[in-house]
Specification:
The protein is mostly helical and 100 residues long. The protein contains four helices and two strands.
């Protein structure tokens, strides 16, 4: 699925209230959401190049999201982590294909 569509769906879905106080990849979930949203927006507008430092951070986030998703299973937090993880994976895929 294209990055722009995943991002639009993520923005429309919003953050579940159950995320309050949840930490993912060393960052409070809502702050992490803003970090990823800024990254996606910059990639879509071609205002940043995904370098090694950004790739490492996104890979760290992807692993943490997978772990949190597995621990939260069918809860709103698990669904949020799954959706956000797809978005992070799409950024990494675009960066590897040279489009980001």
């Amino acid at each position: 699925m294209p990055l722009s569509r995943l991002w639009r769906e993520h923005m429309e879905a919003g953050c579940p209230s159950e995320l309050a106080g949840v930490e993912i990849a060393g960052t409070e979930a809502r702050t992490l959401d803003a970090e990823i949203s800024a990254c996606v927006s910059a990639v879509l507008t071609r205002s940043i190049t995904v370098d090694g430092r950004i790739e490492r951070r996104l890979a760290e986030i992807r692993t943490a999201l997978s772990d949190k998703r597995d621990a939260a299973a069918d809860s709103p937090v698990g669904q949020y982590c799954d959706r956000l993880n797809k978005l992070v994976s799409a950024v990494l895929t675009e960066s590897k294909t040279g489009r980001a």
